[in-house]
Amino acid sequence: MNMHLLGVALDMDGLLFDTERIYFQVGQVLLQRRGHTFTLELQQKMMGRIGLSAIGQMIEHHRLDDDPVSLLAESDVVYGELLLGELRPMPGLEEWIGRLKNSGLPFGLATSSRRKFVDQILPTTQWANDLAFVLTGDDVTHGKPNPEMYLKAADRLGVSPSQMLVLEDSGNGAKAAVSAGAVTVAVPNEHTQLHAFEDVHLVADSLADRRLWELLPSKSDVS
């Protein structure tokens, strides 16, 4: 398999950064203002979906009468206020990025997050300039679990989806990658460990899992 992998696509929320914790706080704020409670069950429904689709899950779940566009705007304000102060890398992130760079494979970001938030997060890293592409929720019509994001990622890499390794932390994201035909590895976090990860190649313990690292070729293999 190593010889067939020609590129890598990475999710961001819950995989590279512990933003799911921030999203949970945002959900709590929004729903407390409306006399409801944000639950893990609702968070699972929203994960991986792009802006209005995620907000639609919240509205449907609690039968809110809010306008989706207005509620999304309110959500953006709360998230933006929390983001940089609460942002934390996931365990093993820097080591994994180093291993990726040493592999010689091009790699990029395929996240459901809005572009404006990605543009705040990436400058805090040392590897933003190493990304071959950045796809956000603003770049697709259909969010995860639809495969559109990863079909576009393969196109940006110039490879077949079957030659692309995808890392995802959520069931919706993993389903999108599997449906696109990518070699999919699930890296669950505390919020997604009970998700179903059907047909993935591997369920890794973390970004530091050596089984994940062993999927990558060496630079000599790539050249």
TrEMBL record:
Q: Which GO terms fall under molecular function for this chain's record?
A: hydrolase activity
What InterPro entries does UniProt report for this protein, alphabetically? HAD-like_sf, HAD-SF_hydro_IA, HAD_sf, PGP-like_dom2
Q: Which domain of life is it from?
A: Bacteria
- Its name, as the record gives it, is Hydrolase, haloacid dehalogenase-like family
Q: Which organism is it from?
A: Rhodopirellula islandica
Lineage here is: Bacteria, Pseudomonadati, Planctomycetota, Planctomycetia, Pirellulales
